């Protein structure tokens, strides 16, 4: 044993042992386990729902180890679904192939048909659209009569709205880098230079600037926003071979179902401070201190994220299973209440009343438990960090029960961020800071389109077809939440 090890106290050795066990558990989780947060409670959600109507018992200061038994209700087996010709969506185009019997049936009576449906695929193909404009000469050399060429998204370019929309969708929704798209086009015998395709993306996004700016102003005027941020590597042309770690700050309005991605070069407070400089209302965030200046302003109320607090206890199960699972079960009870409100489509006031009657007692129980257990654990252990984080965020975490409009967490904004993470794994980085800003615009429009059940490709294609000649003062009509397809 080294001299250093011999001088360690018992508490120091205990803490070091716990720290190493936690690191080992985290490594096992990353290598072998699933990253999705999942907690299997000792009681099922039906029992939790029933318990909402009963008086909640006081929590013990230190949770005793208890074995809970219950009878698992056998699920009713669903009837076996036989193959059906209606399994294929009715909106798909049908190509009919009639196969007549080989023998002569001219004297027979037809009594029906045997129909077999097969799902097929036609590879997306490039084609050429030719605009033919007849020219007519006026008498006596007074000039030529020819129709005006329709406005095009890329002036003097060969790319039509459908192709541009396909390229944008492939890159920002299907996460297919441009060089791989060029390979696909090459297989069809069409060679598109990389610089040309880059120019098409840039030119297309220029039309989206007024849409993006309009949505940004709408978001900034919202009375309730969720906020989160995610990194995006960006090529730094001043440092060849290196990338700069930029950030997409994402803002979501749950009431209007609007999303906005705002690119900034860093994660410091300057980004949200500038974007939300005139914001007044509820701001739902995690524990990141980049929002501290904003939530200190008059008229701004901070709301916490219960899902973020839950993750700390999820990760602490290897450190202190009893305490971690007690908390996870209580948090799950809160989410059962939220699910009931959502499934019943409760109005704001009724949602508020439901929380006051059922969520408030659970929160009170959690707070008592946190205060009692804070001094019973090592502060730097996983369970100690979980308890410390939750206590530090407590005033924000319990805020959602004071207003039926508020959500228990900001998972809705995290859902909007997920496609960015998938994109990072595929196209790895943005080509420039301007490219990252263009990505923010596309992410904004596509995410909002999905929230309003608008098919993103059809939306982008239609917008690129119409916006060159669209009145600037009516541009808000082309946002996904207001969009009506043009009838051609």
Number of distinct beta strands: 7
Helix content: 40-55%
Main sheet summary: 5 strands, mixed
Q: What would you call the structural class? A: alpha/beta
Q: Could you tell me how far the N terminus lies from the C terminus, measured between alpha carbons in angstroms?
A: 83 Å
Mean pLDDT: 86
Q: Helix-strand pattern, N to C?
A: HHHEEHHHEEEHEHEHHHHHHHH
How many DSSP H or I helices?
16
Strand order of the largest sheet: 5-4-3-6-7
Strand content: 5-15%
Q: Roughly how many Å is the radius of gyration?
A: 30 Å
- The poorly predicted ranges are 55-63, 65-70, 78-82
Tell me, briefly, the overall form.
Answer: globular
What does this structure look like?
The chain is 44% helix and 9% strand. It is α/β, with parallel strands linked by helices and 488 residues long. It has a domain at 306-409. The strands form two sheets. Strands 5-4-3-6-7 form a five-stranded mixed sheet. Strands 1-2 form a two-stranded antiparallel ribbon. It is globular, with a radius of gyration of 30 Å. Residues 55-63, 65-70 and 78-82 have low confidence and may be disordered.
How do you describe this structure in short?
The protein is of the alpha/beta class.
List its traits.
488 residues, 44% helix, two-stranded antiparallel ribbon, 16 helices, alpha/beta, globular
Map the helices and strands.
Elements lengths: L2 H4 L3 H22 L13 H7 L83 E3 L6 E3 L14 H12 L5 H10 L6 H27 L3 E12 L7 E11 L4 E7 L5 H6 L5 E4 L7 H4 L4 E4 L2 H10 L5 H23 L4 H26 L8 H11 L1 H4 L13 H17 L5 H19 L4 H11 L22
Helix pairs in contact: 4-16, 6-15, 9-10, 9-12, 10-11, 11-12
